[in-house]
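Re: the 609-residue chain
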Amino acid sequence: MQTEASKLQTVLVTDCGSTTTKALLFEKTPAGWRQTCRGEAPTTVEAPVADVTVGAMNAFAEVQELSGRQILDARAGVGSHPFLEQGGGRPGGIDLYLSTSSAGGGLQMVVAGVVKEMTTESAQRAALGAGAIIMDAISADDGREDYERIQRIRHLRPDIVLLSGGVDGGSRSHVIETAEILLAAAPRPRFGDTLKLPVIYAGNCQAAAEVSELLSKIAQVAVVENVRPTLDRENLGPAREAIHEFFLTHVMSHSPGYGKLLKWTPLPVMPTPAAVGNVVRTFAEGRGLNVLCADIGGATTDVFSVFKNASGERVFNRTVSANLGMSYSIANVLVETGSAAISRWLCYEIEDSELRDRLRNKMIRPTSIPQTREDLWLEQAVCREALALSLQHHRSLAVGLSGVQQRRGIADIFSQKKNRVDLVDMMELDLVIGSGGVLSHAPERLSAALMMLDGFALEGVTQIAVDSIFMMPHLGALAAMHPLAAQEVFEHDCLVNIGHAIVPVWSSGGSGAGGEVAQVFLDGRAVAAVRRSDVKCVPLERGRVYRLRVEARNGAVDLGRGAGKAWEGEIEGGCVGLILDGRNRPIEMPSAGAAHAFQADLFRGVGLL
């Protein structure tokens, strides 16, 4: 197949998800690279089919039927790739096939370190950035006895284990003790019962030989550079590369049917979250933006962020909340937040027992979709709480390493929280992107914007966008071969600009006469005021560039430029326009008895009711 980016004309990409395999056709048109057709089919990695290529072929057939383009070669023999290649005087065909995958539960890992908030946390960031779901994080100070850690590791069947611990040249004893716990547990890999478990060692380089010899009895060990070579520096790249290599050779190649799929594509199959992360990181760095992206699925919620650190460098972080989702895990959101927290976002009265029953029904019928407006609003209320919980989890790991210039004692090593810097600053956020069914397929784009506005409690001036049809994984795979093509499609077909949220935040006495907290100007003309406890929309011409200026009413109001200072910059009109939110942060909610009436008034004010 064609592997020169400059010669590519047609690329077919699949994302083999846990329930659905989605195939997208990308073509070079006179207007540039565009996404032209989409097909999908149930994923067939599970029994009774147990062959992922069957579902992929069904998705290809749908793309072929809808596009009218012959992409499958009827003469293809068994074992060869099934695509008709372009050229040779034959119509149709494709130049290249690529794929991502999260089928079979995605990439599942256990990480281990010595200190929970140092080496173990660095190992988590390395694994999460590589697209993994963290099944457990083991550390010497996690509060468990050795036998409990051994039982836990033995019970789990991870795809890969990432072992870290100690700075280079430091103590070797603790990381060796962690390796001995892993040896005693002797976990088995999830796929390939006859294989040794892949273990990546990314700890103190002086303990590498001993750890490798110790674990070679039960595992295939790969030694890479330390993820935390010094207290004040992380080095996550080598561990992430090793994870990708093991994912391809030990996980994908032994999953049902993936052996055939791997022969169809010249590039490695990427974990779906890693592909999404590549798109987010490339876009943020290319545009010089601070970006937050959430992909909320049925079982998990991934959060990606790119923010500047203290040195001015943009740092990428990803977390996955493995038990927060909109179908399989919807009851976990209920357990974590309680029915009252979900109910406060509804514009109608509902008994707690009915709310719980409706969410349990969704959990046992995960593929069902809302049949009434009340069902839709309930799912969107759950989405708000799932986003809030996921962001809280993300912020706990998206931290900078500080204290480089400080003289610290041994006690400071075990009390890192006071030396950590939260990288996610909502006032500095430029763009938030929503992905996943509940956001991408919301009946109104405004509903998706409000879910992110409420769930993330946005502050200052922030652009809100959604992934139109969840094509970010496909674009991540395409970017590995043709970055410019992926960027074109991302900006033209993937990213839907909903609008900009203007959210003043103030201390006591922030509102002026009539409850005004800020005044909004477009191209030098006053168009609206942000009033306390009020949410409203200001329509804009879509695609038009405006000069936006927002002025604080007094010195207590912060718009993102500092207390009392105006915010000014260029914005592009989205499909909703401006969303003016006068609810202070934390979001001011009325008493429980008045919450439903308040939400009903809010929905009426923005045209959703």
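The longest strand covers residues 32-42.
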